[in-house]
Specification:
alpha+beta; Alpha-Beta Plaits; 2 domains; about 25% strand; globular
């Protein structure tokens, strides 16, 4: 069997699956014409950004297992400006549905990140400011980022995953996909079968930065 490893920039409103069980949303099949590849983890339909797909079941299992704990970084637009107390709570862990989240890397971005406009755009409220956070997690509970920011009083308006382990959006645009390079794949395999790592990557500031 020839293994495939695909990196996809999922747009807003696209389901992280190939089967279409609703007429409301598009699916991966509308963008990726490759059979028998499956997403490693998921992004909710109303979230955007990186999705990794493969037909390598062993690698998929390793990357999806909760004990693996690979890093995932998100740019998160929230309602209002989080204060230091809210950031500390997010960093140390918050309670969501009787579960305390693991420690999280969180920083308030000084400027709006260079992302393509979302279609449709978020609905702004004139008298309510917004801010952007960068959050790096090592777990992926259902709608976790949204529930975390809501728990500290700052609802998520837009959520974009910009990094999975060492894989980044870089110059990709919504709806685009590409194969992993040989060096990216080698690092991914080493990471998966070495048991993962915890917060060894510095926070990013801009797409494509190191």
């Amino acid at each position: 069997m020839t293994y495939r490893y695909i990196l996809f920039y999922k747009p807003y409103g696209v389901l992280s699956q190939f089967t279409k069980d609703t007429s409301t949303h598009s699916t991966l099949k509308d963008y990726i014409e490759i059979s028998d590849v499956y997403p490693v983890g998921r992004l909710d339909w109303d979230s955007e950004g990186l999705v990794l797909l493969t037909n390598n079941g062993q690698l998929q299992h390793r990357l999806s297992h909760p004990q693996f704990g690979h890093e995932r970084t998100y740019w998160v637009q929230v309602e209002r400006i989080p204060d230091a107390d809210a950031l500390t709570q997010l960093q140390e862990g918050v309670m969501i549905q009787n579960y305390r989240t693991r420690p999280t890397l969180v920083q308030l971005l000084p400027t709006e990140p260079p992302l393509p406009e979302r279609e449709p755009p978020i609905r702004f409220r004139k008298n309510v400011p917004t801010a952007w956070l960068e959050m790096t997690l090592t777990e992926g509970k259902n709608r976790q980022v949204r529930r975390m920011t809501a728990a500290v009083g700052f609802p998520t308006l837009r959520l974009v995953r910009i990094r999975i382990a060492h894989l980044r959006l870089d110059e990709m645009q919504p709806g685009q996909w590409r194969e992993l390079t040989s060096s990216e794949l080698k690092l991914l395999q080493n990471l998966a079968f070495a048991g993962g790592r915890k917060f060894k990557t510095k926070p990013t500031t801009f797409l494509g930065s190191s």
